[in-house]
From TrEMBL:
The keyword Iron does not apply. Signal peptide: none annotated. This is FAD dependent oxidoreductase domain-containing protein. The lineage of its organism: Eukaryota, Fungi, Dikarya, Basidiomycota, Agaricomycotina. It comes from Steccherinum ochraceum. The keyword Flavoprotein applies. GO terms for cellular component: cytoplasm. The chain crosses the membrane at residues 6-26.
């Protein structure tokens, strides 16, 4: 398996943070065993595309609630990012989370990282709060870094819209392996068509705030009495441009990618209340963002499926359009919702373990 001719071909569908991190783990664990091709309609440099989630993410690490598989992936990812500080890609900042109800054990499943805030430091309407050191990355730096790493490893990127697993199977060839990291695309990808997949709409504001990252903390709190879909957070980003990301919304099953300026005003008003340094005349709004987090009922899917080919619809392609016959293994890795970056390294390691288990 050490020569290129003997390499098994892995075709990864999706060039978001999950797909590229899987490629990175494969490349570093098994540098000569596999030939890797990433196939995607949207590439890491497509920062204005709303067709995939990775460019729009807050890309910080913040506990959402306990689930055994997520806990394992999040812990592995936190440790990986923590060790990457010297790259300059990872920014470590204090993070405050305010809680509108009495905290439960499930809410505090990373409690070894937390310090509880005294009552006098809690915003009005909040019952509890914690502070801890966390990490954040800037997608506009991190995604190109991942891509460059992969190119140096010999990974091939192909820009192509793939409508079904048959096309991926043709690219993978005999005895190839397909990795499905298509996010929301798993809902319509022929051969997968997962009806459990749904979007969670997120809206944010990018602010140019010179010098703020040296003195500002991240924070997150619900907007009590406004909407259960709203949560305000502010995240200073590692960037020579000194940006702060302000969010946001958490609107399940909402496919709208247009900017809601009423919601944007609510975010801004709350953010400047708890981060007064944002009011400086030196600061300016760079842009308003809307992205769709790729969620899935029941949680993320990481598993191997043995698929029989062809799976295409004859009326779409014609009887002879697809070449692959027989079975190939498909490793699914999608449905992470708002935890794509937060779970990325742990999820990638899990997916690569599955790839290695395929005979």
């Amino acid at each position: 398996m050490s020569t290129e001719g003997a390499q098994r071909h892995i075709v990864i569908l999706g060039a978001g943070v999950i797909g590229m991190t899987i490629a990175h783990v494969i490349s570093t664990r098994y540098p000569s065993k596999y030939k890797i091709t990433i196939v995607a309609r949207d590439m890491p440099e497509d920062f204005t595309s709303q067709a995939f989630a990775s460019p729009w993410a807050g890309a910080n690490w913040s506990p959402f609630g306990y689930e055994e598989n997520s806990y394992r992936r999040e812990l592995a990812t936190f440790n990986k990012f923590w060790d990457m500080q010297l790259t300059g890609l990872v920014h470590v900042v204090p993070y405050r989370i305010y809680i509108p109800a009495e905290p439960t054990e499930e809410m505090l499943y990373f409690k070894e990282l937390f310090k509880f805030l005294p009552p006098e430091e809690l915003p009005e309407g909040m019952k509890a709060g914690v502070i801890f050191d966390t990490i954040t990355v800037n997608p506009e730096q991190y995604l190109p870094w991942l891509r460059l790493q992969l190119l140096n490893f010999g990974v091939t990127f192909v820009r192509r819209k793939v409508q079904g697993l048959d096309e991926a199977a043709d690219l993978a060839g005999e005895n190839g392996i397909i990795v499905n990291a298509t996010g929301l695309g798993a809902k319509s990808l022929i051969g997968v068509e997962d009806e459990k997949v749904y979007p969670i709409r997120g809206q944010t504001i990018i602010v140019h705030a010179p010098g703020i990252k040296e003195r500002a903390e991240c924070f997150a709190l619900p907007l009590v009495g406004v909407s259960s879909d709203d949560v305000t957070y502010a995240i200073p980003r590692p960037s020579p441009d000194e940006h702060v990301l302000i969010g946001g919304t958490y609107q399940k099953h909402n496919w709208d990618t247009s900017v809601d300026f009423t919601a944007a005003q609510r975010m801004w008003d709350t953010a400047v209340k708890y981060m007064p340094a944002l009011k400086s005349e030196k600061n300016s709004v760079i842009r308003h963002n809307v992205g769709l987090r790729p969620a899935r009922e029941g949680g993320a899917r990481i598993e191997v499926e043995l698929v029989s080919f062809p799976v295409n619809r004859d009326f779409m392609y014609g009887h002879s359009a697809r070449q692959t016959r027989g079975t190939l293994s498909v490793v699914h890795a999608y449905g992470f919702g708002g935890t794509g970056y937060q779970c990325s390294w742990g999820a990638a390691e899990e997916a690569v373990d599955l790839i290695q288990s395929i005979a």
